[in-house]
Structures are given as structure tokens and as C-alpha cells.
What we know:
Elements: H1 28-31, H2 34-40, H3 79-88, E1 89-93, H4 95-104, E2 109-114, H5 123-131, E3 135-138, H6 141-148, E4 156-161, E5 166-167, H7 168-174, E6 181-187, H8 192-205, E7 209-212, H9 221-227, E8 235-238, H10 242-251, E9 255-259, E10 265-266, E11 275-281, H11 289-294, E12 297-300, H12 312-327
Parallel strand pairs: 2-3, 5-8, 6-7, 6-11, 7-8, 9-11, 9-12, 10-12
Antiparallel strand pairs: 1-4, 2-4
Amino acid sequence: MSADAKPRRPHGKPSTTTQTPRPPRKSAEENSGRGADALQKPWAKAGYKAAVKTSPFQGKKPAADPKDPMHKPAAKVSAATLKQHRLEETKVQGENACRVCFTKRPQSVVKMYLEASMASKFADVMKYLAANKHAYHIVDSSELEKVAGSQHHGGVVLIVKRKPDLSLAAYLAANKHLKQDCLLALDGVGNPHNLGAIVRSCAHFGIKGVIMTQPYLLQSGAAARTAEGGVEFVEGLSCEHLPLALQLCKQAGYSLVTTSSHAGVSLYQSQLGSKVVVVFGEEMDGVSTQVANSTDVALQIPGSGQVESLNVSVAASLILGEWYRQQQR
């Protein structure tokens, strides 16, 4: 053992070295205030105070960067724009009408409401709307009734963009090459269920257009539902004055036909032309005198006479069916 080395203390013997006892730990209460700050912050002993800066953005949301597309403010839509959108949209309700509308022009569908029971039948429509960032809502029958404005919604309602109206002049110019053509002209007929039934018959017999001063009525919810999808195949041909429109048709080579419950040629003894416009009036008063005077022939649908006349949509169906039959010969 070297001279500088200290001898080891044998095991079991207490040390005689005197140690300075540590001061007791201060409690949390005693460490509060400046004393605790002095222990944690050495600069506090010298009397310095830490400068704490407050961020100008504290408590505020950072302003959106106009160049960042993720932070652009939502565009404000004016009341006039919303009103215009509503005028450009209409409702299609009922399973068949909605299915045909989506098949013919899916891009026009804006939104869909449907009951849960119809979800499987319209799964493809829901998938299309989701892919194109359009909404669909599964609702109960009472909510769907509010959307449709009717109890007869058939479990599904589409909000769609209206088909644009086509002027009669534009139709005649585009179809002047046709050798066979039949159009309907409606004088004062406005009941949506009658309109829908007429359009359904038109689609069945291949009639391409209905001349009206208010063709948008053909696309009302009730008319479209009654038409069972027929509105997608029949154009509403707009005109400002029906007598002038009929003269325009006459100049284009169409014969003009109207109906009468009291006089006229029997429908089944007549020879309907290959190009014809059939004019129907409102059930109570019929066609106006001015319109009646411009037609070439009046047709009578024979019957028992036990009732005065047929519903306008039924009369239209019979005459269109006869015209179609004659053209097939």
C-alpha cells in the first residue's frame, strides 16, 4: 500500500468523519413567490426581470392568404342569384320519372331526396351525385312530402335544372325536312295532371313537341310525375301568340285540326295528314273562336252521348293514336 493511500474502513465499524447536514427541503408554499423564481431563474437573484413578449396574433385567427386556395373566403351569393337558380330548377318526383330523367340527362340533377326504401333502386344515382359533389338526403316520408309539396312523391324527388324551352320557329327550321310529323297545340290548358297525361301520350306515340305560350308548365313537379318520364322526350315549343304560331305551322306545310263535341268529321272516317297540328282547348270553353277559325278541319270522337265530352288528355290520346295508326299503313 502506498503512503498516500488511505486505509479502508473495516466493515461493520461506523465512520467517524463529520458531515455537514443538508438543509431541509422547502415546502411548495415556501417555494412560492420570488424565492421559487430565484431557484428556477438564476437571473432573478440579480434583480432582473424576464421580458415576456405577447404575439400580435395571440387570440386572433391569422388572416386568410388570398393566394392560398384553401383559405379563400366563401363566395357570397346574392338573393337575386338564388332566385334565378330557383327559377332555373324544378322538381321531378316518382320512381319512373326520376329514373328516366337521370338516364337522359344526369348532368342536370342538382340534388336528390329519397326514402330509405328507395336507396337500393337509386344507388347508382347516389354514387354519381357523390362523385360530382352533389348532395342526396335520405329522409322520412313526412320530410319528403314537404320537399315535393305533395303526398304523391313516390318515395323519391330530384331537384333538376329545367330543360331549356325551344321556340316554335327554331323547331320548324330544324325539322323542315320531315315528311311525317305531328305536333300538339294547347289553348288555355293548364291543369298539371292533364298536361302530364298529354305529354305521356305524346311520348308513347312519338310526338316531338307541344306548342304553348307557357311551355315551362310541362316541367312542373305534378306534370312530370304524371308524364312518367315522357317530359324527357317531348319538347315544349314556345310561342307568344297561338293564332300567329298556327299560321306559322300552316306556312311550313302542316294542316290544322281541332276537336268538337257537337259537330265535325268522325275521327275514324277522317284522313289525317302526314304533317298535322292538333289543337286542344281548355275543357270548359274549348278553343277560342280565333283559333277555331284558323283550323282546317274539326274532328268529333264518336261515343254514346251519355256524357258531353271526354277529358282533354283522353281526347288527345285517342286522336294521336289514330294519327299514329294511319301513318303505319
